[in-house]
Specification:
Order of helices and strands: EHEHEHEHEEHEHEHH
Number of helices: 8
Distance between the termini: 16 Å
Oligomer: single chain
Number of strands: 8
Bound molecules: D-xylitol-5-phosphate, zinc ion
CATH class: Alpha Beta
Radius of gyration: 16 Å
CATH topology: TIM Barrel
Strand content: 15-25%
Strand order of the largest sheet: 1-8-7-6-5-4-3-2
């Protein structure tokens, strides 16, 4: 991938007006709308589910990048596809059968991704990478916005990139958590293709400028 993509997370947006939130993401120059789905079980928080994705699909001019933080995601994958997810990722350690879930997502023409929390090694799942469209590396523990970037995630990215190279796979890597103008530099240097940013974009005085800076422009 050449151009770095920015996926502002609407977790930091206005929950009373999500239509305006996604329109702003588009106006500010975001590339994807990152939607954090939390179930109160896999992570402590509860956010929103399929009805929100379906509603956003009607008003968003940008692809929806849906990050599932739910237990046994396979129970809901059909519904998240039907709701209009364009990119759909889940934590494989939350799933009983991650490979079937990936295949189901891909067969529907949706981009499939595996997500790794900082304490979850990717190696046991690496054989599935050839069937993925992207890999999402968490640089905080999934569950809430506004946390501090965990530096060791950069090491994991280098290891994933080495694995991909050795296996002749060209798959984009997304990073999520604690991304701001400073940590984005390290992420770009590590070869990340897609950056998620919640608080850095929505808390900015000039979000359009922040998005450009995150991209390194
Ligand atoms: C955390 C979510 C993130 C979150 C990022 O569980 O997956 O997408 O919105 O927020 P910031 O950019 O504020 O760390
Ligand atoms: Zn996320």
């Amino acid at each position: 991938m050449s151009k770095i993509l920015i996926a502002p997370s609407i977790l930091s947006g206005d929950f009373a007006n999500m239509e305006a939130t996604v329109k702003k993401v588009e106006e500010w120059g975001g590339d994807l709308v990152h939607c954090d789905v939390m179930d109160g079980v896999f992570v402590k928080n509860i956010t929103f589910g399929m009805p929100m994705i379906a509603a956003l699909k009607k008003v968003s001019g940008l692809p929806l990048d849906v990050h599932l933080m739910i237990t046994e995601p396979e129970r809901y994958i059909d519904e998240f596809i039907a709701a209009g997810s364009d990119w759909l990722s889940f934590h494989p350690n939350a799933s009983k059968d991650p490979l079937s879930a990936i295949r189901k997502i891909r067969e529907a023409g949706v981009k499939a991704g595996l997500v790794f929390n900082p304490d979850i090694p990717f190696q046991p799942y690496a054989h599935m990478f050839k069937e993925c469209d992207f890999i999402l590396v968490m640089s905080v523990f999934a569950g809430r916005g506004g946390q501090k970037f965990i530096e060791s995630s950069l090491q994991k990215i280098s290891e994933i990139k080495a694995y991909l190279r050795e296996n002749n796979l060209d798959i984009p890597i997304e990073i999520d958590g604690g991304i701001n103008e400073q940590t984005a530099i390290c992420a770009r240097e590590a070869g990340v293709d897609i950056l998620v940013a919640g608080s850095a974009v929505f808390g900015s005085q000039d979000p359009a400028k922040t998005i450009k800076a995150l991209r390194g422009e």
